User: Fold these one by one.
Assistant:
Number 1:
Amino acid sequence: MKSKKIYTILLVVLIILQVLVNVYVGTKKEYYHMDEAYSYGLMNYDKLNITDNEDFLNKWHNKEYYIDYFALNSDEMSDWGAVYENQKNDVHPPLYYLLLRISSLFTIDSFSKWTGIGLNIIILAISSILMYIICNKIFKSNVWALIVTAINAFSFSTLENAIYIRMYALSTLNMLLFTYMTLRVYEKKELNIKDMILTGLVLILGGLTHYYFFIYVVGVYLCLLYKSIREKNYKFIIRYTIMAAISAVIYLLIFPYSISHIFFGYRGAGSASGTTALEIIKSIGIYLYIVNKNIFNYILPLYLIVILGIFIVCKIMKKKNNEEKQKASIVNYILVGTLLYFVLIAILTPYKELRYVLPICPLIIICTVYYSKLLLQKVLNNKTVMIIISICFAVIICTPALTKNKLEFTYSQHNGIAERIEKLDAPILYVFNTQNNRFLDDIYLFTLVDESYILNANDFSEEKIDEIFENKDLKNGLVVICNEDINQEELKQTIYNELHLNMEYTQRMNACDIYYAK
């Protein structure tokens, strides 16, 4: 009991440190991806995108017009319909947006990144508790459980997960919840009602967060099916299948639109059409690079060389560990589910980006540590193996200090552009190409200035520029944002001819260029 209390205290300290690190990283977040803007709009706005408003184009707007897209307003507090309706019309299930809306109750009538980051930090803290419990069951050691939990807590992948305001932190928690429930039922000959209800609830919550969750579930289910057939334990798998079927029915009753999203949507099965074997191999290679960067800080090959090198040297020296060795068991199931998820997202995802692998990063860490331990324990004792693996991952976690590996989702490459535009106190002219609608990539800038004008690029002319800025005070200059495929040279000349302002290049963004005209 005393030992258990000590490890509980150590886990609490670890989670407090994790929260503090996540808060610090959150303070460094300078900008937002368009999908993060979508997260706020989808949980409260009456449309999918602010650009769908009839008064969006060719109008002057104040900052409140854009803040309204992000913020949960006082008069919207009792109207929860947007959470469900927007997801029905989009391609994602609604649970994350429900939680983000609840979190937004603390920032009524205003926008704050901490609404989303704070929610993620809480979710990831719960994930660390679950990670510790899972690792304790797998490694059968409090010390190993703490080590693996710490590796995950301070990995780049978890830090990125904390500051990316999307459903991936919640999806990570769901992956761990399902893994935990699988651990609970793995050794049982017969499923009891409690385990069936809890597993079914996890399946429903996971599906209501992200559809890719089901890929991992299918992988683990196939392993359980194989185990049950091999052991002729048909009662177990029949009950498990019935439980899954009932959960699916309940899930579809809650959110029937998932059928069209999964099988006919552009982010579902339909996105895989026409994918060639070469493209799949290339995508897998890209995701391997992403995992190497964000979990292993580019040194996974070196880590594998070290582990294999130690094993080979000890084998040559004919060293042998006489201690009782742990056999890979349930971890094989985790590995199968993880690999299936990894390969299928390589095929299905339209963009090859870190966010899609974030939910399985803790599982990758568990498998990496476990199989490294399994190999080294053939030739070394448990304590020595623990020291070697701990040192390796301590080096991995500290590597960014030398390699200058940066967190992607802080968007530090935008170099404080939002702060500079706010200080200029100048109006914004956004020349908008409606054929390349990525306005939400830059909507945050418009929440910072008092006046902005969205000009449809098709209506651009000298006469239009004269009309827009007639009687406008431009003493502080003008911020000009050019959407993709705009003739910027023609725009520069027109601004100079009509407004007598010179456009100076300021910043390249994700889907536009920013100029300051003075």
Number 2:
Amino acid sequence: MFPEYDVIVVGAGHAGCEAAVAAANLGSKVLLVTMNMQTIAQMSCNPAMGGVAKGQIVREIDALGGYSGIVTDHTMVQFRMLNRSKGPAMWSPRAQSDRMRFALKWRQMLEEHPNIDFWQEMVGGLIVKDGAVCGVRTAMGLEIPGKAVVLTNGTFLNGIIHIGEKQFGGGRAGEKAAKGITEQLIELGFEAGRMKTGTPPRLDGRSLDYSKMEIQEGDAEGGKFSYSDTPKIEKQLPCHITYTNQQVHDMLRTGFDRSPMFNGRIQGRGPRYCPSIEDKIDRFADRDRHQLFIEPEGWDTCEIYINGFSSSLPEDVQYKALRMIPGLEHAKMFRPGYAIEYDYFPPNQLKLSLETHLVKNLFFAGQINGTTGYEEAGCQGLMAGINAHLAMAEKEPFILKRSEAYIGVLIDDLVNKGTEEPYRMFTSRAEYRILLRQDNADLRLTPLVHELGMVGLEERMVLVRAKQEAAAAIEKYFLETSVDPEQLQSLLERADSATLKQKVKLHTVLLRPNVNIPDLRVALPELDQFLVQYPVEFAEQAEINMKYEGYIRKEQEMVNKMNRLEEVRIFDDFDYRQLGSLSKEAREKLSKVRPRTIGQASRISGVSPADISILLVHMGR
């Protein structure tokens, strides 16, 4: 009935969709298996993409040929560039998405791909022979052969939904949980754990009084994620901000005795940085209010998402508390918030390629690895899809270093440190974040994946080369062009900067605080005439290169030092137990993680600098 597929992807959430596209664009014949074709790429929680560090990841997914940025650009209802008041390493794009159009666009793009087939059914297990996966077995008993399998099960593995004292099986509201895979993986020797996440209630936007809330508009100039030729948003929907109060908190506390979080029914760890509302008022009892974002679900619906009010309290308590919030006094609820508990597999059981150590050609991506967030899931799916294709073709894996991408940081953290709570990306996790900006992801990553032979990147490479050449030309112009003092006197006075006494190079002026290229273009018609030939983002790239040249150079020097350790390879079958001089903890951790390089070994929790020195001596370094 089924041909043998090159790659079978189990689950069609954000990780599964990106995995399918990545493998298919490299030439693999892909089967995407999902329990429900109507929920492909569904935004199960907030209808938004990007944010701090997450926006950088979406840009990186796009630069690597993924579709998340393209889909977002076609379906957003609002765009904002966060942290503009800070340095460019902190600038983070975020888009409010139309939930229904987002999923529809993803499905459309998947169905248009000639290398992707679909099958709607639950996968109940894997077919494993001689230590390698060779297909999947469905709930109906069908066996589908495949050379590589990517598991992207999200919250569906033995998922349990909690609302107050009620609990029932499910991977998402209205959808059943997946059974069988966890049990088989444990039999194969995998270690499993439980995690928890949650979602807020959804409200009827027609019942809200927005006049009592603060309005939050999108950026006036709009924006987008993809480096390709996608549309910039022209019309935007506003979000709104309101706040809880002490009366709301008191009402929520009346339900604590029926809360699954407080009475012990939930065993899994929840996300530290996105706690439920009951967790907030318990942990931060000194706070008399908490901020809530009132976010529209799309252009064609009145449904509203209450960002910041995730809850698993009884529905009557949620309802009463919501109606005590300014602007929500007459709120009508579409459905209550709930918590969901699910199985995950600690990611230190994976290689950096996201292939499992125990079963060859089996890859894990997304929440099965203990992460939270669409962006974190999507980038893992992309990398797993690429590496599943490469494994099937018996080629070297594609691995991003920490100095090359936030995606590299995320996967390195997961594999080497593991996680016992839902992992979320932050800019602070990246030690080279001046290099890993959202504006240069295409320059960093598109050439790397183009070398792999991914289709559809020829035009991208033309743009990458144009951007590099333009930035170099603009920087050269600034270094060679002098400017008269009187031309910039009023500009420098407005910038609270000392006026010029003599002619200086334009580059010198740009390095001053509060001076930027857009302002210089207004003051200097000849500069504006020169720059008009380049897109605005190319000039912005050149400005960042010039203003932060010293910081970028220092960070690159740090990268070069670390890369010396990354170049020292460790044999896959290296026996760490033979080195009695290593600490016992180091021998255990190194034997479990199986690092590819000395650099990776140095980042494993429990491996000390002394242990690294011993390894280097043993390897003749």
